[in-house]
Amino acid sequence: MAAPINTKDVIKAIDLFRGWPNPALLPVTSLANSSATVYSSPAIYTPGLLYGPDDGHPPLRQHLARWLTSFYRPRDPVTADRICITGGASQNLACVLQVFADPGYTRNVWMVAPGYHLACRIFDDAGFAGRLRAVPEDEEGLNVGFFRGALEAAEKAWKGDSESQFKSAQPWRKIYKHVIYATPTFSNPSTKTMTLRRREELVRLAREFDALIVTDDVYDLLQWSSDPNGTLAQPDQRCAPRLVDVDRYLDGGPQHEFGNAVSNGSFSKLIGPGLRTGWAEGTPKLAYGVSQAGSTRSGGAPSQMSSTIVAQLFSDGVIESHIEKVLQPAYAERYHIVMSAIREHLLPLGVALPSTTQETAGGYFIWIDLPQPLQANEIVQRAKQEENLTLAPGDLFRVQGDEKAECNKFNRSLRLCFVWEAQDQLAEGIRRLARVVGRAADQAK
Known about the structure:
Blueprint: E1 14-15, H1 28-39, H2 42-49, H3 58-72, E2 83-86, H4 89-100, E3 108-113, H5 119-128, E4 132-138, E5 141-142, H6 144-157, E6 178-182, H7 196-208, E7 211-216, E8 223-225, H8 243-249, E9 261-266, E10 278-281, H9 284-291, H10 294-299, H11 304-315, H12 318-346, E11 360-362, E12 365-369, H13 376-387, E13 389-390, E14 392-393, E15 413-417, H14 426-444
Parallel strand pairs: 1-13, 3-4, 3-6, 6-7, 7-9
Antiparallel strand pairs: 2-10, 4-5, 8-11, 9-10, 12-15, 14-15
Helix pairs in contact: 1-11, 2-11, 3-11, 4-5, 12-14, 13-14
């Protein structure tokens, strides 16, 4: 087994942790052209620089309605009144909680585990510290059988009542008993995609227990064939309907005017997080409710100027072209480079990939499991010290505050991001990880 590398001799550090878009793939020229168009036209830049309507820049809402209809192919077209422009997925998650949850009445926030770790602080800030609960995944996504039992137990244990609510009744507000947070397609970090059957089961469960499903649908458009030699028959169409689309058609449609699902969309993974622009989609009543969060009512639509520039990108046909001709092929190539290196260097050491039969891969991440008795935190530390390699340990993605739950332990897992690092360093990063795993396994014998 090769000796550890002295990090002082390493020419370049490799980072497989950071889940940011690759700077070389940002549409800088298109953004510059769109900005020039916007700032050269008083009819466009004047409303862009002023307070926008609560629900956001109308042209962008209209573009989104057309684009989302084209990609997701719902049974009924998406209309602009179902959309509210937001400051991105994270900002909007906070607004959704401000309007539709109340720590005096909402029992718990349920998060798929492993889950997006930075969302936990948002839930804490909304008053749910200590009430985040982990829901495990199985081969089809969120484990609905487990979830039903947990919901029934939570209802039985609940001591509050409707009089415990802190927030006043308002026509744009509905306080749900439960909030469910998930990334159903190419989940961060597990990369799993929830099956259609499981999505329908989850919507029925949400209706039964008065829950709002908040889905981060931020990776859906970044998809490609899981076969390195294959191609997707329809790369410009979704691999599964969103939960918000399922709620529209299932069993006759929403059970009330707010519905039980909201899609949290964002341009952060597509054209740059610094734009701080995203959207929420739900029933017209729910979309209006999001637009009535106090911070939006006071300051006007979030990202008003950025929204104006993004709308111009749609007018120029840039966004669809950038996704299909730049991002999908580039990220597919990166994904397959890493997968090939994992199969060559890590699988022989006992490292495992999650079992899947999915024909479509996508997103930003790959989730792997280390062989016994190796511990992810130790491997991460040694990788940094011995190979100048930065990794994300699985326990980082636990649902915070529910650490005792058996389904919330990922001490033998790692999340690898194949997007941020330079492409020619990806396979080398896996080789370095293999050296660390090999040395640790030898020492554990």
